[in-house]
Amino acid sequence: MAADIKFTEEHEWLRVEDDLIVVGITEHAAEQLGDVVFVELPEEGTTVSKDDEVVVIESVKAASDILAPLDGEIVEVNEPLSEDPGKVNEDPLGDAWFFKMKIEDMSVLEDFMSEAEYKDFIG
Amino acid sequence: MSDQDTALKRTPLYEFHVAHGAKMVPFAGYEMPVQYPLGVMKEHLHTRSAAGLFDVSHMGQVILTSGDGREAVARALETIVPVDVLGLKPNRQRYGIFTDETGGILDDLMIANTGDALFLVVNAACKAEDIAHMRAALPASVTVTEIVDRALLALQGPKAEEALARIAPQVADMKFMDSLRFDVDGVEWWVSRSGYTGEDGYEISVPAEIATQVAETLCAMEEVEPIGLGARDSLRLEAGLCLYGHDIDTSTSPVEGNIAWAIQKVRRTGGEREGGFPGADRILSELHNGAERKRVGLLPQGRAPMREGTPLFATPESQTPIGEITSGGFGPSVEGPIAMGYVPIAYSLDGTPVFAELRGKRLPVTVAPMPFRTSTYKR
Q: What class does CATH assign to A5-122?
């Protein structure tokens, strides 16, 4: 996968798309969660701080949160995901992105893990 | 659970679970499979459409005997359970509860009449206390024996009969809540037609040393998949069945818990063996006058699952909760969120709207009949 994808220790992936960052969860995270049955997305236009709980995601087993990876503004959410939460298991790296956010300084992305580093991280 | 972590027990099927790729978790002091590679959702749906095999060997198997015969054992047990044990016919099983002096529930259990003894199955988390309670409360003439050398399997689902009858043809003639002992290849099996999924099926007690072989034989059949605790929970929730320690406990009476059906007429006011069990004053009074609150089914109106501990309110604005959810999640067969919990009697009628507070928002929930999915017992 290209160099423009980064990974967080919270098992999110961040991909640069023009001047925005697209956020989703990794295959590893989706697998750990199990069958996802509910996704609650934030409202477009919300200003968030790093580590804010922005997405609620529930599997048959349990509820968990997706945290904002950075300070910024949620500019777009993947609304169809609310109707079809199972997509998170089927295509976590593609169709099942959660939101796109605008951040001040794209260079902070460098602080996150590369794909190889993430693979080491999850062992 | 750190105390339990240090000394987690394993069932005779531990190697089986690992070999089948289970994710093992601590549960009631045991290392148990929460799911297999199929995953909770597919395991649930497979049980509803074919047959699922569950390891329930962590549960307590207990035999009660007496030199004075089974009838004496039944009379003794009736002093600590509000159930008609004496009237339980040979080779039949029924649901029961242990009550405490305040009318709360110490545990729920299955009671089977084996002809010369009573065979009980109690919850894993309560088994030590239950056995101590029986030894203390029952007369010395009753012997309480915990069976530790047998595994307990459950085979549940519409194809359970077809699958199990291949190795034990006797099971095809059993009816719901029949409990039989018979030999299979020279080994004694104790089988009841019952379960915890709302499906037809069996619970099978076999000697520990053949448990793996029985489980492998069953799972080699096309219709059978091993099923973990995750799906066991969603299956029982859809079936409207209580989970002890969550939906019922010492703070809930059987009438509040909506399991008054387990108390037969003969033990109620005016019955031949009225009362005579711990908490009888309160329980008999509640059976007559009703309780102040009741366990009900709850259907969240949106898609959000509502878990245990979610508070319930009468209106979107009211300050004080009227009750709370005791079990809840997603029902794979219902294809939506389902829950159960306690509400005051005034709010307990089917169709009553209430509100759950979830992540700071009040969301509409409707009181609904249980089971959420029609059970398919072979009566």
A: mainly beta
